[in-house]
Amino acid sequence: RFHSFQRDPMNDLPLGQLAAAVAGGAAVAYALVAINSSKRAPVPHGTVLYYHSSCQGFTGRADAIVRMLEHAGCKYECKAPSDVPASFAEEQGCFAVPFVSFPGGLVLSQSQAIHQHLGRVLGLYPKTLDDEARAMQVALNAADLISEGGKKFKEDPARLKKWLGVFEGTLGRTGTGYFVGDSLTYADFASYSWLKLMLTLTTASAFPRIEAFIKMMDSLPSTQAFNAKGVPLLPASMMP
Fold first, then answer.
1. Number of other CB atoms surrounding residue 196 within 10 Å
2. C-alpha–C-alpha distance, residues 16 and 14, integer Å
3. Which tens digits make up the pLDDT trace of 38-60?
4. φ, ψ of residue 9 in degrees (nearest 5)
5. Which pLDDT does position 14 carry in this prediction?
6. Chain segment 156-174, per-residue pLDDT in tens
7. How far is CA 186 from CA 26, 57, 135, 139, in A?
């Protein structure tokens, strides 16, 4: 049996009107993203972060998570991997720390997934669809930078300069001092400490935008307060 379908009036629109309608729809979509991104959820007090040394010996891949929570004034707790409930692996799909357990019951692993979610919850999220994609690109670039490691860059300085050139260029594209848009996002926190470390391995003045970015991040009250605790980014044995 055949079903009857109503004719779509969009099919009868002249090309110019159709393009205008599509553009209008895109504008609405961008506006909705901006509205949704600007809605800041209540700060998730009671969040629990699980990471090596309970983030007392070093922050490592949990660094941006801690810094975003500190920046938002969130009351949170850091626990060791030995404190992780068995259900995180069996029911929540979590494999390796960092893990974050949120007050509403959500449990996440994978640093970039946590960064992105915290960005939404804490008001550190991009304002447009394009910038959503760019923020994730920056955060993933930072993750790749971490994976390659500082010791490798000491052996291959050209590789480090190529990577730093990518971050320098991204800051040049925005022209705002931030990696995405005109305000802090999770992409800035994901990049900050690692770029600061990598600049010590090369001629920092060759990357003036990264230098300025680090100074901006250093000047944040939350950054100053956390840095004053003296918790290193990496254990001494892993430092380049």
1. 17
2. 6
3. 455 678 899 999 999 999 999 99
4. -65, -20
5. 53
6. 999 999 999 999 999 999 9
7. 25, 23, 7, 8
Query: Is the model's pTM score more than 0.90?
Result: no
Indicate the angle between helix axes 129-148 and 186-199, nearest 10 degrees.
Answer: 30
Structural tokens at position 129: 């669809």
| Nearest by Cα to 84 from 57, 44, 54, 122 | 54
Half-sphere exposure of 117 (CA within 13 A, CB side): 16
Side chain identity at residue 223, one-letter code: T
168-172: long-range contacts at Cβ-Cβ below 8 A with a sequence spacing of 24 or more?
168/207, 168/208, 168/209, 168/210, 170/134, 170/138, 171/209, 171/210, 171/212, 171/213, 172/209
Question: By C-alpha distance, which of 212, 177, 176, 220 is closest to 196?
Answer: 212
Residue with tokens 């670039």: 141
Mean pLDDT across the chain, nearest whole number?
87
Distance in angstroms (rounded) separating the CA atoms of residues 122 and 74: 9
Rounded distance, CA 68 to CA 174, Å?
Answer: 22
Q: What are the tokens at 148?
A: 């390659």
How far is residue 177's CA from residue 213's CA, in Å, rounded to a whole number? 6
Q: Which residue has 């009671």 as its token pair?
A: 46
**Which 8-state DSSP code applies to residue 77?**
E
Sheet with 76-79: list strands edge to edge: 76-79, 47-50, 99-101, 107-108
- Helix, strand counts (H, E) of the chain: 10, 4
